[in-house]
Design goal:
By secondary structure, this protein is mostly beta strands. 10% of the residues lie in helices and 39% in strands. The protein binds manganese (II) ion (MN).
Amino acid sequence: MSVLRKALSDFRWEGVDMRAYKDEASAPFRSVTRQVLASAPDLRGELRYFEVAPGGWTTLERHAHVHAVTILRGSGRALVGHEVLEIGPLDLVTVPAWAWHQFRATAQAPLGFLCMVDAERDRPQLPTTDERAQLQAIPEVALFLGNTP
Ligand code: MN
């Protein structure tokens, strides 16, 4: 593989496959794709590009590993912990360990972001019914989540 993979149009890169967001079908999400931009045996992290189609959303999840996210295109909102954040191009979002998180695109445009993560990492947890109810008890979070899973 060349050390340079040129950017193509529309947030694609040479030699980078467009993949499904998650392999497992068990986690709920809507209209998200994944491209792994950097991953190597001697690299302890991975750099991925996710794109959420208009009206789409990533899985509501938490885990021990952390994320460093850079928004590249579009805008939307993110839930991190108990906080709902307005996000747009070049904003940086840190997702701490065990913070619930979800990214949602606006209805008008795709939301694309880079996400840096440990190469070796624990599996995400989904909220239990009780944990979801606790999140829904916060009005701003309830509004953010709506009635999607
Ligand atoms: Mn995550």
